[in-house]
Amino acid sequence: ITGVSWNFNFQHLQVAAVPEDVGTADALRAIAHHLTANDILVVSGDLICDIPPGAVAAAHRRHDAVVTAMLCSAPVSGQPDSGSSGAKDKARKPGRFNIIGLDPTKQFLLHITAGTEVEKDIRVQKSILCAAGQMEIRADLMDAHLYAFNRAVLQEVLDQKQTFQSIKLDVLPYLVRTQLSSELLFSGVRAEEHGNDTTQNDKVMLSQLLSNTSMPSFYELYASGSNGSTPLPRKTHKCCAYIASKGKYCARVNSIQSFCDINRDVIGDASYLSGYSFSTHNNIIHPSAVLGSKTTVGPQCMLGEGSQLGDKCSVKRSVIGRHCRIGSNVKVVNSVVMNHVTVGDGCSIQGSVICSNVQLQDRAVLKDCQVGAGFVVTTGSEYK
Fold first, then answer.
1. How far is it, in rounded angstroms, from Cα 63 to Cα 54?
2. Alpha carbon of 311 to those of 63, 158, 275, 287: distances in Å?
3. Rounded Cα–Cα distance for residues 126 and 201 (Å)
4. Which protein family is it in (predicted)?
């Protein structure tokens, strides 16, 4: 499934491979010699959205920012960054969220911490808070992993900070943290050479910050020096946020739970992402699919191209991929069955994800399972 249509010129598309354990920052280092534009977009491959990337790029250029991060509402059903297993695990730790600080206009990114427990205090830059006047702290927004970067600044950070491995955990927080005391080179001048170092005293507990300040506003600080004089060349840099409207769809396929949630969305409220039209029964059945006698495919289901279901089957709130062969008296509920899967007679599949080329022999029972590609579930087996 995909949520954004990208118009690529495949004659100029190049694919660069990096080791599987390499972080996102290291992946960018590996392709640095291919980056030539003044501004670049970095998009995670697990992002499903209907937000035009051009809107993020336009906001980035309008503010002359070094980075613009796209933020969207966090999924309701779970914690995408928690890595937690089943939702029924009562002993699991409290969910971990992104803690995001925004200026009053919700255009500038003042603070971001990934995976911070909500119950704990957080530390923010006092200088940034004083410059902005006030900061709105949000825990209901998700970093969508779509960023617009100033290429020169990004490459400088990657070159100077060789220990940085992740865009989300290292590069973005660093740029936000140093935006009023930039250590980046602009026109050959370092801001810290002119006495703009941030001291440890700038970091204070959020609960201890004073609300009143006589310092210049956030915008004035960007327009002039701290004493009102003409500023040095780019001694500060702007970090911006593009917040997707609630009417837009934005989610990341970064866990089994989110994968299942998104598949349900695509055959539900976000059905327009699939590119298919719903039937009068509120489901999607490809014209080439074959249904046996007394077989029912319920609302909010999808049956892919060339798939066949035997007699007396029941499919509810599930997605079945292309060219699957499903026998008779099979029940599929709240599940995702990928492509080229063979299911024998009398099988029951509930709350499970079945990867491509799996074989389920007769009378197999699966509940809340994930079955890897090519696996064979033997006759009469029961897994829960």
1. 14
2. 61, 59, 29, 18
3. 8
4. Belongs to the eIF-2B gamma/epsilon subunits family.
Task: Give SS3 for 97.
Answer: strand
Phi, psi (rounded to 5 degrees) for 360: -105, 115
Residue 280 near residue 296, CB atoms below 8 Å: no
User: Over 22-76, what HEC string results?
Assistant: CCHHHHHHHCHHHCCCCEEEEECCCEEECCCHHHHHHHHHHCCCCEEEEEEECCC
Model pTM? 0.76
**pLDDT more than 90, % of the chain:** 45
pLDDT at 366: 96
DSSP string, 148-215: EEEHHHHHHHHHH-TT---IIIIIHHHHHHTTTS--SEETTEEGGGGT-PPPGGGEEEGGG--S---S
Name the strand (E) or helix (H) holding 81: none
The structure tokens listed for 248 are 């837009």
Sequence length of the chain is 384
Model pLDDT, residue 317: 93
Round to whole Å and give the CA distance between 81 and 183.
Answer: 30
Walk me through the domains of the chain, giving residue ranges and CATH numbers: 15-252 (no CATH), 276-383 (2.160.10.10)
* Cα–Cα distance, 9 to 12 (Å, whole number): 6
